[in-house]
């Protein structure tokens, strides 16, 4: 063993000591390289858990070149207004199953409902170069999808990053947007770093579980490469393996997205590692600040914010400042995924909002007592 070799080297003549030292170094180096090859270079067998297809799920080709997974539900009864299009969060987290379960009852209001998986997620197109992912592509895909589906005017329900995408779409296509529902909206201020707090609410046991996923050698190396060379990262960690690992990481982090004691959600499926990570990487240029272009738009907006949301209170304030016709629905028993965690309350408020009722309150500059996230 190593101790025995060291003892022999101490008793042996200098030449033999050098040879013994070299052999010890070579043996150790081979061992390290074997571990490196086994854990980093050779992909471990992964068995991604596919998401069962939803009834009516289809693939839609759009003008940006993407093929998007789309799930639609028709209005129950007479149509009462523009259709609802759900813009999911992340980026890179389509959440089709959970969003459909939470929002499908809105069809009882006489509204068609459309959900989709953005480029880079679920069964939608993966880009060969991760540098193509980002807010601008998401906005272009959304507009292209509306055109392909023949939707002239819509209600956009945006969650987290999807709220930012919906707001950016409004700045370019105001004539298409009847109303906005912004659930736990992603920050408009490029200097707002509260998005990095997504795991702040995890307890010790869940944090250990998360780190076990994040610190695995291959995804850790791919993440490091992504900060300097996105193509090299993708060469090491292809989409299938990367997305499966991303699902596992997001599943481990899920408890931080809800209030303590709330029922847990099922496993995350269909996320896209590069669609999720590249826009947040060091090599990605931050998207332009849309607040000047958004300011003064009179489109009615309902901002939904839960007490346990990890994002800053300022993210809600910025939307209210830009959109003078906005109101706040504050839920003291909901977290980041408020539309899923308190689906009935959110659906009730959205129904009243779509019917033209005044819902919620003006957005206060300071967070209510007990708000879990930072003020700014």
From TrEMBL:
Alphabetical list of InterPro entries matching this protein: AB_hydrolase_1, AB_hydrolase_fold, AB_hydrolase_sf
AB hydrolase-1 domain location: 82-341
Membrane-traversing stretches: 20-42
Pfam families: Abhydrolase_1 (PF00561)
Keywords: Membrane, Transmembrane, Transmembrane helix
MF terms (GO), sorted A to Z: catalytic activity
GO cellular component terms listed in the entry, alphabetical order: membrane
Name of the molecule in the record: AB hydrolase-1 domain-containing protein
Organism field: uncultured Pseudonocardia sp
């Amino acid at each position: 063993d190593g101790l025995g070799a060291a003892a022999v080297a101490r008793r042996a003549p200098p030449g033999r000591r050098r040879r013994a030292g070299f052999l010890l170094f070579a043996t150790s180096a081979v061992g390290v390289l074997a571990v490196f090859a086994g854990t980093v270079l050779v992909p471990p067998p992964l068995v991604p858990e596919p998401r069962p297809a939803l009834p009516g799920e289809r693939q839609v080709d759009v003008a940006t070149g993407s093929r998007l997974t789309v799930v639609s539900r028709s209005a129950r009864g007479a149509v009462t207004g523009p259709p609802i299009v759900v813009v999911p969060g992340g980026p890179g987290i389509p959440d089709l199953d959970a969003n459909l379960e939470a929002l499908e009852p809105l069809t009882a209001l006489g509204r068609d409902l459309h959900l989709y998986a953005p480029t880079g997620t679920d069964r939608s197109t993966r880009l060969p170069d991760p540098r193509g992912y980002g807010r601008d592509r998401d906005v272009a895909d959304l507009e292209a999808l509306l055109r392909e589906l023949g939707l002239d005017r819509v209600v956009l329900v945006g969650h987290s990053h999807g709220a930012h995408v919906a707001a950016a779409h409004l700045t370019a296509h105001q004539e298409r947007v009847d109303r906005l529902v912004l659930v736990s909206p992603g920050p408009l201020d490029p200097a707002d770093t509260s998005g990095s707090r997504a795991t702040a609410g995890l307890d010790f046991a869940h944090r250990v579980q998360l780190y076990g996923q994040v610190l695995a050698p291959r995804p850790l190396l791919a993440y490091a490469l992504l900060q300097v060379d996105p193509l090299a990262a993708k060469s090491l960690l292809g989409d299938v393996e990367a997305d499966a690992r991303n699902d596992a990481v997001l599943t481990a982090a899920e408890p931080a997205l809800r209030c303590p004691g709330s029922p847990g959600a099922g496993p995350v499926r269909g996320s896209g590692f590069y669609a999720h990570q590249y826009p947040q990487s060091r090599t990605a240029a931050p998207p332009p600040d849309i607040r000047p272009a958004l300011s003064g738009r009179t489109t009615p907006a309902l901002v939904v914010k839960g007490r346990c949301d990890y994002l800053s209170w300022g993210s809600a304030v910025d939307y209210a400042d830009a959109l003078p016709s906005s109101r706040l629905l504050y839920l003291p028993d909901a977290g980041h995924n408020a539309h899923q965690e308190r689906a009935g309350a959110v659906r009730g408020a959205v129904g009243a909002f779509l019917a033209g009722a005044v819902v919620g309150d003006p957005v206060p500059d300071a967070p209510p007592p007990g708000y879990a996230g930072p003020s700014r």
